[in-house]
Amino acid sequence: MTQFIVEWIARGGYLGIALLMALENIVPPIPSEVIMGLGGMAVARGRMQLGWLILAGTVGTVAGNYFWYWVGRRFGYQGLRPFVARWGRWLTVEWEDVERITRFFHDRGGWVVFVFRFMPTFRTMVSLPAGMSAMPRWRFLIATAGGSAIWNTILAGAGLYLDQRFEELDRYVGPAAVALTVAIVLFYIYRVVTWQPREQRD
């Protein structure tokens, strides 16, 4: 099963990796850990080159994050509120989430953009307050690209290591990868179906 998934990833090529990583940062629930991890396995099997894989993944990550930076900069802090109110269900984001991370961003400074590229949560949504606070575009792009390149290298390296050392466990890894992806998709659907604005819950 793992071989089939890796072949499917490799068949899409580097453009496919970039598109998947961009979508991962715009619309959940495809996790970067799965995309780059399977890409690393494709490298181990001679289907992709590690350097190009990391470059493609980083370009996609920057593109996806820049979308949210542009949204934040285009609409501003208060201007973003109707957008979140309208599309929050599909993004599984509440206005309180935006307020919380915006306060944290202003308290900690621009280095948060770089550091949050390694965080399992708010890795993408930190781009919103960066845009809303009018962080210089060049600084945002450099921080995003630098942090994303390191994170993608770690993920791809993990996939490469896993494939080289534990290929005999293929019959276990494949079903586990499928089960994880299905679980993430189901969780996202659950979040969309059950999500309510805070004012409706109070």
Mean pLDDT: 76
C-alpha-based Rg, rounded: 18 Å
User: What string gives the helices and strands in order?
Assistant: HHHHHHHHH
Structural class: mainly alpha
Report helical residue fraction: over 70%
Poorly predicted regions are none
* Main beta-sheet annotation: none
Relative strand content? under 5%
Counting DSSP E segments of at least 2 residues, the number of strands comes to 0
The number of distinct helices, counting runs of at least 4 residues, comes to 9
Describe this structure in words.
The chain has helices spanning 2-26, 32-44, 50-91, 95-108, 111-115, 127-132, 137-165, 170-194, 198-201. The chain is an all-alpha fold and 202 residues long. Helix 1 (2-26) packs antiparallel against helix 2, helix 1 (2-26) crosses helix 3 and helix 2 (32-44) runs antiparallel to helix 3 (50-91). The mean pLDDT is 76.
